Amino acid sequence: MEELAAALQAGEVTSVELTDEAIAGIERDDKAINAICVPDFDRARDAARRADEARVRGADRPLLGIPVTVKECYNMAGLPTTWGMPQYVNHVPTEDAVQVSRLKAAGAVVLGKTNVPLGLQDIQSFNEIHGTTNNPWDHTRTSGGSSGGSAAALASGFGALSIGSDLAGSLRTPAHFCGIYAHKPTLGLAPARGMVAPDAPALPVDLDLAVVGPMARTARDLTLLLDVMAGPDPLTHGVAYDLTLPPARHERPADFRVLVIEDHPLIATGSAVRAGVNRVADTLADGGARVERHSPLLPDPTEAATLYMQFLFSGSVARFPVEAYEQLRTRAAGLSADDRSLDAARLRAMVFSHRDWIEANNRRELHRHGWRRLFAEFDVVVCPITPTPAFPHDHNPDVLARRIDIDGVEYPYFDQLVWAGVATMPGLPATAIPAGRSPDGLPVGVQLIGPMFEDRTPLRLAELLEQQLGGFPTPK
Description:
Blueprint: H1 2-10, H2 15-33, E1 36-39, H3 41-56, E2 67-71, H4 98-105, E3 109-114, E4 126-127, E5 131-132, E6 134-135, E7 138-142, H5 148-155, E8 161-166, H6 172-178, E9 181-184, E10 211-216, H7 219-229, E11 257-260, H8 271-286, E12 290-292, H9 301-316, H10 322-333, H11 342-349, H12 354-377, E13 380-384, E14 403-406, E15 409-412, H13 418-424, E16 430-437, E17 443-449, H14 456-469
Parallel strand pairs: 2-3, 2-8, 11-12, 11-13
Antiparallel strand pairs: 1-3, 4-5, 6-7, 8-10, 9-10, 9-16, 13-17, 14-15, 16-17
Helix pairs in contact: 2-3, 5-6, 7-14, 9-11, 9-12, 9-13
C-alpha cells in the first residue's frame, strides 16, 4: 500500500487506474476464488475519480485513492449485509459501519465486500447465498474463516487492504491459510458499531472477545490501517477520551525479549506449523533477540483454553430458541463430572448461568494479571495460529462431527481454536505473519502476541521479521 500511495503522490499513477486494474483482476480471476461476494464497482470508480480530483486540490489523506475491500459483515449503505444467512438476503442497511466511514474518510476506494461463513461461525468461508471461497494456493482447500474472503482477496491481489473481524481467530486464521498479514487489536481498541448481524440495531456495544481489525499484504500496512481504525467510538468513549498508543518497546530485533511456544497440552502441533514457528524463532535468535522456550510466568494453557471455550460458546447460544436450549441442558446434565474435555467444556458453557459466567470472568482477570507479569519479562510471545495449514473444504452440516487431521491423527474440529484463544480470551493484541510454506506449498503463519494496548510492539516485530524472512509471495 505504501508503494501505491507513493506512486499516487508522485503522479505516476491515478486512483482510477489502480481501481480499474483491481476490478479487471477481480473480473478475470475471482471466478475461481469467489472472494468478492458483493462487488461495488460503479461506486468504486466514482470514489476513485473523486480521490484523484481531491489530490489535485492538494488533499493528503492516509488512504487517499487506495483500493480496498470490506468483510461482508460490515454495514455499507446501499449494499446487502447478510452474514451469509439466507433469510436476510434482501437486508440493505442505510448507514455505514463506523469502520467503513473511517475508511472512506481516509480516502479509501471500496471495491466491494468479501465472503464469510454462515453467521460468521466457522473456520471456513461458505454460505448458501454466496457459495464457497477457495484458497488461492489450492482451490480444494479453505481460505479460512470468518474473514476468509478478505484474506483470499488480498492473496489474489484484489485490493491492497481489507478490514475483518476476529472472535475465534477470524483475522489470524485466514491470514495464516492464505499467506498474508493481519492484526487482532487489543479488545476495545477499534469500535465495531455497524459490524452487526442483520437483525440487530447498529449500536455502540462493547463486545466481549470480538474485535475488528486490519488485513494487508505487508506488515507495515497493518500499522497504517490500524491507525485509521483505532480510537473510541464517538458516540461513547470518544465523548471524553482520545487515543494515544504507546510506541513499540523496541526498534531493533536484537532488543526484543521473545517467548516461543510451539506445543499445547490439549492438541498436537502439526509438523508444517512447528517448522514455521521454529523458522521465526531461529530468525529472531540469529538477529540477536533473547529467545526463550519456557517460562513459569505463562498462564496455565489448559485452564486458558477451557475459559476461552466457555466464553465463546456461552455467547454463541445466547439467542437460541428455548427448545434448543432445553435440549442442550439435558445433554450437559448427562456429562460425567470427570469429563474435562474441551467438548464437555463447550457443552456446559452453552447452558451457563450468570453466576457461572461471573466465576469464569473472575478467572479471566487472574489470567490477565498473569499476562501482565509475563510481559514485564518478555515483549512478545510467538506461537501457532492453528495446528495445520489450510485444510480441505469440509461442509458437513454437523460441525461437531467434523474432525481436523493433524499429521494423521484426528481431533475434534473446534479444538484447533485453542491457539486463537491464547490472545482472544485475555483480550491481547496479536499479529499474524507469514512464516514459510508447508512441504506441499501451502502458506504457514504464526502469531505474535503482545501486551494489552501495546499493539505497536508486535506490529513492529512483524515489520522486522518481514524484512528478514522475505516479502509477500504470490500463489502458484
